[in-house]
Amino acid sequence: MKKTILFYLLLNISIFSCFGLDPCCVQPCQNRGVCLSKGSDSYECDCTRTGFYGENCTIPELSTRIKSFLKPSPNLVHHILTHYKWIWDIINNISFIRDAIMRYVLTSRANLIDSPPTFNSDYDYKSWEAYSNLSYYTRTLPPLPKHCPGGTTALPAAKDVVQKVLLRKRFTPDPQGTSLMFAFFAQHFTHQFFKSDLKKGPAFTKSLGHGVDLSHIYGETLEKQHKLRLFKDGKLKYQVVDGEVYPPLVKDVQVEMHYPPHVSEQQRFAVGHEAFGLVPGLMMYATLWLREHNRVCDIMKQEHPDWDDERIFQTTRLILIGQTIKIVIEDYVQHLSGYHFKLKFDPELLFNQKFQYQNRIAAEFNTLYHWHPLMPDAFHIQNQVYSFPQFLFNNSIVTEHGISNLVESFTKQTAGRISGGWNLPPAVQGMATKVLEQSRQMRYQSLNAYRKRFNMRPYMSFQDLTGDKELALELEKLYGHVDAVELYSGLLVEKPRPNAVFGETMVEMGAPFSLKGLMGNPICSPEYWMPSTFGGKVGFDIVNSASLKKLVCLNVKGPCPIVSFKVPDIQFPSLTNVNASSDPAGHRGINPTVLLKERSSEL
Question: Which of 31, 386, 438, 540 fits a 20 to 30 Å CA distance from 551?
Answer without folding.
Answer: 386
